[in-house]
Specification:
binds guanosine-5'-triphosphate, globular, 3 domains, alpha/beta, 15 strands, Rossmann fold, five-stranded mixed beta barrel, zinc, nucleotide-binding, 29% helix, G_CP_dom, EC 3.6.1.-, binds zinc ion, rRNA-binding
C-alpha cells in the first residue's frame, strides 16, 4: 500500500484503522518482494456465493478467494471483512477483479452455529458461520408497543457484547406515546452504562444522536424484531426512499453486467451501515431459542396430523399468521426447528 494520504483517507472512511494496518503490514512482509506492490487492502461490501464485491482506495471491484494457495487462509471472508487483494494483472482481461489472499484479523465477529456435514466422519457437526465482521456499533431497535420485551432486549445486548461490538438501544416510534420517558426508564434498567437513543424514523426526526455514532468510518448494524422500524431507520440514514433490494447492478469495463448482493453501504455524511438478512435473523434465532408452546398448541388443531403449515387446507397455524397473531418470522423459526425434530 502506498503512503498516499488521499488513499489513507479513503480507507479510513471505509473503517480502516491502526489494528488492520499492522496486520496488513505483517502479511505483506511475508510476501516475496516482487509481490508486495501488487496487493492492496479492501473491504468486503457485498457477497454473492463465491464472488465478493470489494472496495478499497481505488474504488470498487469484484474478487474471489484465492484457491488452495500457499497463503492457504482457512477463513472465508464475510461482509465487513478487511482482506488483502491481489489485483488481476492488467493483461488478464479481467479489469477490476482480483484474488483475495487473506482475511485480516477481525475486530468484532457476529457468528452463528450452522449444521454442516463432516464428510470424513459422515456426521452432522456444528460449524460457526460468520455473518458480519468488524461491526463497531449495533443499534438494538425496539418500539413502545407489543414488541417491547426487556428480557429479549437483554439477550440482544448480550449477543452484541459477545460479538465485540457496542450495543446502543433505540426506542423507535416515539410518536406512539406521549410518555416516552417511561419507556426510556425501562430501557435504563438493562444497564446504566448503555446508550439510549429515541427516534421517529418514519418522520426522520431524532436521528441526530444516531448520526453522531457514525463518525470516523464507524460501521453500524441494526437488529430487532420484525416491524420495529429497522428498514425505515436504514432508509432514513441512507437518504433513500425505497427499501434496499439487496441487488446492485454494476458493469465492468467491458460493459458486462454483474450482480452482487451488496449489504455494506456508505452513509451520506460518514460511517457505514451493514444491512444483511443474517443479522436481521438474530431476532428469528432468538425466537427459535424460546419455546413454541403456542405454535404447538395451534398445530394440534390443524386438520391434518402431518400438516407442514404451508398450503394445507384447515391449517390452524397459517390461519393465525393471516390474522396477525403469529409473525411469519416466528413461523419460519418454528418450521426450522420442527423439521429436524421430526426426523429424530
Ligand atoms: N408510528 C411510527 N411508525 C413507524 C416509525 N418507524 C417505522 N414505522 C412503521 O413501522 C412499520 C414497520 O417498519 P419497518 O421499517 O418495515 O420495520 P422493520 O423492523 O424493518 O421490519 P422487518 O423488515 O419485518 O424486520 C412500517 O409501517 C413503518 O412505517 C415511527 O417512527 N413511528
Ligand atoms: Zn398446519
Amino acid at each position: 500500500m502506498s503512503s498516499d494520504p488521499n488513499e489513507r483517507a479513503e480507507l479510513n472512511e471505509l473503517g480502516w484503522g491502526a489494528d488492520f494496518e499492522a496486520a496488513y503490514q505483517t502479511f505483506c512482509d511475508g510476501l516475496p518482494a516482487g509481490e508486495r506492490d501488487g496487493v492492496t487492502p479492501v473491504r468486503i461490501v457485498g457477497v454473492q456465493r463465491q464472488t465478493f464485491q470489494v472496495r478499497g482506495a481505488d474504488g470498487e471491484g469484484e474478487a474471489r478467494m484465492a484457491g488452495a494457495s500457499r497463503h492457504a487462509g482457512e477463513q472465508t471472508p464475510a461482509i465487513g471483512d478487511w482482506c488483502v487483494l491481489e489485483a488481476a494483472p492488467q493483461n488478464s482481461g479481467e479489469p477490476g477483479s482480483g484474488r483475495l489472499l487473506a482475511v485480516l484479523p477481525r475486530r468484532t465477529t457476529f457468528s452463528r452455529a450452522v449444521g454442516a456435514v463432516d464428510e470424513g466422519r459422515r456426521s452432522q457437526v456444528q460449524r460457526q458461520q460468520v455473518i458480519a465482521a468488524n461491526v463497531d456499533v449495533v443499534l438494538i431497535v425496539t418500539a413502545p408497543d407489543a414488541d417491547f420485551d426487556l428480557e429479549r432486549l437483554e439477550r440482544y445486548v448480550l449477543a452484541v457484547q459477545a460479538s465485540g461490538a457496542r450495543p446502543v438501544l433505540v426506542l423507535n416510534k416515539a410518536d406512539l406515546h406521549a410518555d416516552t420517558d417511561w419507556w426510556v426508564q425501562q430501557l435504563r434498567t438493562l444497564g446504566p452504562e448503555l446508550e439510549i437513543q429515541v427516534t421517529l424514523a418514519e418522520s426522520g426526526a431524532g436521528l441526530e444522536g444516531v448520526r453522531a455514532l457514525l463518525t470516523g468510518g464507524t460501521t453500524l448494524a441494526l437488529i430487532g424484531s420484525s416491524g420495529v422500524g429497522k428498514s425505515t431507520l436504514t432508509n432514513a440514514l441512507l437518504g433513500r426512499t425505497a427499501a434496499p433490494t439487496g441487488e446492485i447492478r454494476a458493469s465492468d469495463q467491458q460493459g458486462r453486467h454483474t450482480t452482487t448482493s451488496r449489504t455494506l453501504y456508505p452513509v451520506p455524511g460518514g460511517g457505514l451501515l451493514i444491512d444483511n438478512p443474517g443479522l436481521r435473523d438474530i431476532a428469528v434465532w432468538d425466537a427459535a431459542g424460546g419455546d413454541f408452546e403456542d405454535l404447538e398448541a395451534l398445530a394440534a388443531q390443524c386438520r391434518f396430523r402431518k400438516c407442514t403449515h404451508t398450503t394445507e387446507p384447515g391449517c390452524a397455524v397459517q390461519a393465525a399468521v393471516r390474522k396477525g397473531k403469529i409473525s411469519p418470522a416466528r413461523l419460519a423459526a418454528f418450521q426450522g426447528e420442527a423439521a429436524p425434530r421430526s426426523r429424530r
